[in-house]
Amino acid sequence: MVWQEAAQLPDIYKMGSRFAGLRPVSIITHMIFLCVAFHAAIAA
């Protein structure tokens, strides 16, 4: 289950990239978002 969620992270990251654009803040936001998504995958 965790591996399936982890496999989806790159797609989520790409979607976040399009939404955030090229702003410098987007990098920090993506790191936090990926950490939250990863913890959610483990908790699930």
From TrEMBL:
Keyword vocabulary terms for this entry: Membrane, Transmembrane, Transmembrane helix
Positions of transmembrane segments: 21-42
The organism of origin for this protein: Escherichia coli
The UniProt record lists the keyword Transmembrane: yes
Superkingdom of source: Bacteria
Name of this protein: Membrane protein putative ORF
